[in-house]
Specification:
The protein is an all-alpha fold. Helices cover 75% and strands 0% of the residues. The chain has one domain (13-465): Growth Hormone, Chain: A (Up-down Bundle), CATH 1.20.1250.20. The radius of gyration is 22 Å and the shape is globular.
Length: 480
């Protein structure tokens, strides 16, 4: 198709192709949902039992300060995994930019990373069940390393074959696919309660309760990778979409045009640093919540772990709505103000969470308390707000580079997020140790979200992409 025809018709998003690319993110969020929901509690249980020579049941009913005192160690382990990711993500991004194979430049990394992670993942609960802390941590590291091999190239695949003005809407569809992946793990967590495993005597523990979610996640990851491989022909699409990508470069929402043969302009560099700085702060906040919410529910609210999964369901549904509407909102008010709105909503949610206290009403066989219903409202607000943020932030970063450097700039994006996730578990763990106060969790997150909002609002310019059209009806589902 000639460029003149393209300019007259406009750029159009192919929904079918975008949803198929979303199977890469489906596998990513599936694994992270299981990993974040179970691993911090595994580490808390195994470290606290060893430090205080108690059974899990005795630890649960004993002095709550013992649980808070080990959170900084849990944070160190979780941070070590993220530190590996911080180093490896830019490396794999650069490598995939330079790779040329018959199946594409991203696909080899996606396939190898998926297979190794899927094989190793079920060994985490098995080694925890055997009380093998060193083995469990080693396998966690293996999983993280190979997921980094997968993650950067998988995320870079969408902007590789999507013109710049369409990436916010495309990113919304990709994220919806990811949340569908996380939903599989969430549903399992509702019925296979981690608290039922943690709160019983060591001899009464049943391995299948904690092993099943990890096995299901591994199987679905492999299936998602094969769906992606057999339906998205990377090299063919890159060749077919050259003209659309070139036109997208000229319609991009940036202050100065991107030129690979010249240094990055001062305006674009300032924009990049401001986005990455704000991103660092909101990931500091968001990862703190994700890392410790399971322990917060079990050890502070004394509620069933299935309540954490219900929170994920409510937050996930709100996120899907956010991802579905963020592209439309960005077209109207720009990506900057869409992200700012999301951060403001999230700050309000965290401020309300600071007021939450245990209900004190016993409901469960293990002496569990009723779960505060206000947290569901908080998670809906947070889910919707952060969906607006995540939907628009990544496209803003890769807007500032050409197609030849998408892997590299994806590495910048993840370097900011992973450095935040390296620091925040330790930082909040030390805050817990110093304050012995569980409500430090929402207060910590609220302050960081607020700082992120200030940085982003003050230093990021609002540059709207030029108007583009989308395919409609059956035309949007045409084969590639």
């Amino acid at each position: 198709m000639g460029e003149a025809v393209l300019q007259h018709r406009g750029l159009r998003l192919n929904y079918k192709r975008t949803l198929l690319i979303g199977f890469a993110f489906f596998g990513i969020l599936l694994l992270w949902q299981v990993y974040d929901a179970w691993c911090p509690t595994f580490l808390t249980d195994i470290f606290a039992r060893r430090m205080y020579d108690l059974s899990s049941a005795e630890l649960k009913t004993g002095d709550p300060e013992k649980i808070l005192n080990v959170q900084w160690i849990v944070g160190i382990v979780m941070a070590c995994d993220n530190l590996a990711a911080l180093i490896l993500l830019p490396i794999f991004g650069n490598l995939s930019d330079r790779t040329k194979t018959p199946i594409g430049k991203r696909m080899p990394f996606i396939l190898v990373g998926t297979m190794v992670s899927a094989v190793a993942f079920p060994f985490i609960p098995l080694l925890f069940h055997q009380n093998n802390a060193a083995g469990m941590i080693a396998v966690m590291l293996i999983v993280l390393i190979f997921m980094m091999m997968y993650r950067n190239p998988a995320v870079a695949l969408m902007p590789d074959i999507t013109p710049k003005p369409l990436r916010a809407k495309a990113n919304g569809l990709i994220n919806i696919m990811g949340y569908l992946g996380g939903a599989f793990a969430t549903v399992l967590g509702i019925f296979l309660k981690l608290s039922d495993y943690i709160n019983v005597s060591d001899t009464a523990r049943k391995l299948w309760v904690i092993e099943t979610p990890f096995l299901v996640a591994s199987v679905l990851m492999v299936i998602s990778a094969f769906v992606l491989f057999f339906t998205v022909k990377e090299n063919r699409l890159a060749e077919e979409l050259k003209e659309e990508i070139t036109l997208g470069e000229r319609l991009a929402a940036i202050e100065n045009p991107v030129d690979d043969n010249a240094p990055m302009s001062a305006a674009n560099r300032k924009m990049l640093l401001a986005i990455l700085g704000a991103e660092f702060l909101w990931f500091m906040a968001d990862n703190a919540i994700g890392t410790y919410i399971g322990n917060y529910v079990i050890y502070y609210l004394n509620a069933a772990s299935s309540s954490t999964m219900l929170l994920t369901v409510f937050g996930g549904l709100a996120s899907v709505i956010g991802f579905a509407t963020a592209g439309i909102l960005a077209d109207k008010i720009g990506r900057k103000w869409t992200i700012t709105c999301g951060l403001v909503i999230t700050v309000i949610a965290m401020a309300i969470m600071c007021l939450i206290v245990p209900s004190g009403r016993v409901t469960g066989a293990n002496g569990e308390y009723a779960f505060p219903s206000a947290l569901f409202v908080i998670w809906v607000l947070k889910g919707y707000g952060m969906a607006l943020v995540h939907n628009c932030s990544f496209p803003m970063v890769v807007e500032l580079c050409s197609n030849r450097k998408i892997g590299k700039f994806t590495g910048y994006y993840y370097a900011a997020s992973m450095s935040a996730q390296t620091i925040t578990p330790i930082a909040l763990g030390l805050v817990f140790k110093a304050t012995l106060f569980w409500r430090a969790l929402p207060a910590y997150a609220c302050v960081l979200f607020l700082c992120s909002c200030v940085v982003f609002t003050l230093f990021v310019k609002n540059i709207k992409a030029q108007k583009v059209e989308n395919l409609r009806g059956l035309e949007a589902l045409d084969n590639d």
